[in-house]
Amino acid sequence: MDLNRFTAEKLSDHLYRIVDALEVACYLVTGRERACLLDTCTGAGDLRRFVQELTGLPLTVVVSHGHMDHLGGAGRFEKVFMKKADMPIFQVHRSCAFRAEFFSGHLNLSLSPSDFAPVPEEVFEDLPEDTVLDLGGVTVELLSFPGHTPGMVCPLIPEDRILIIGDACDDNVLLFDQYSSTVSEYRDNLKKMKDMSGRYDRILGNHGSYAFTMELIDNVLESCDRILARKDAHLWVHIIGEWMYSANAIGEDELRLDGKPGNVLYSEEKVR
């Protein structure tokens, strides 16, 4: 496998989706004066060089949260913004050995730590609350959305009516470890995101199909309600090397058997 293989798809006048060799996406927003890279994929391959082929504009780099498939390429850049609340997660996920073992196991590949770029702590700066980046003709609003992790942010591009929701809400929202919120806390924050839906009508993610219908948020809210009422499927499943409960029946592809987008995977202690 060529780990330096990246692909780019132009989604609007302002926005590119970049996908790395391990099929994880990040997004590049370009304005008249500046550009912004939203997430940095896994750290496999030279993402910085690929981005420079797309734009020569001054670049701001933002990581949505502290998991390895979003911060992995951060070490390719001099400065990267991330919420400091996710630094404890970063300390675990920064490891090249950790990433090599995870992706080897889940993608049936033979990867070594040397296949991934190191991520030094000093590249990170705390992302201030309610940051809005003016790139010249297009803005990026970095909305706080604690849940999947405490420092999660979701970029909104109002000019394109696009919300990049990332791992905050997708086919399988993960609420199971010491860093994630309770189901009720997550549901309250997701309801706030839905209340903003007059500002966006496209939802993008970093995995799978990389795009969702507006139905996604309603389905995840409904799953949260059923979990809290103890009326969900409550199925014991093995996902990403961990055992947890699924709110809905899923198949071997880890997608809902009823074909609907949006599910919640959770541990018992998060049901409150």
What's the architecture of the largest domain in CATH terms? 4-Layer Sandwich
Strand content: 15-25%
Structural class: alpha+beta
- Enumerate the strands of the largest sheet in spatial order, edge to edge or round the barrel: 8-9-10-11-13-14
Extract low-pLDDT stretches. Answer: none
Mean pLDDT: 96
Question: Within the CATH hierarchy, at the fold level, what is the topology of the largest domain?
Answer: Metallo-beta-lactamase, Chain A
CATH homologous superfamily of the largest domain?
Ribonuclease Z/Hydroxyacylglutathione hydrolase-like
Question: N-to-C terminal Cα separation, in Å?
Answer: 44 Å
Q: If helices are DSSP runs of H or I spanning 4 or more residues, what is the number of helices?
A: 6
Query: Looking at the structure, what is the overall shape?
Result: globular
Number of strands: 17
Note the run of SSEs as H and E. EEEEHEHEHHEEEEEEHEEHEEE
Helix content: 10-25%
For the largest beta-sheet, the strand count, sense and barrel status come to:
6 strands, mixed
Using the coordinates above, name the CATH class of the largest domain. Alpha Beta
Count of all domains: 2
Radius of gyration: 18 Å
Outline the structure in words.
The protein has 272 residues and is of the alpha+beta class. It contains 6 helices and 17 strands. It has helices at 47-54, 68-71, 87-93, 96-107, 183-195, 215-228; strands at residues 7-10, 15-19, 25-30, 35-38, 59-62, 80-82, 124-126, 132-134, 139-144, 153-157, 162-164, 173-175, 202-204, 211-212, 235-239, 242-246, 264-266. A hairpin with an 8-residue loop joins strand 9 and strand 10 (153-157). The longest helix is centred in the C-terminal third of the chain and has 14 residues, at 215-228. The protein is globular and about 50 Å long.
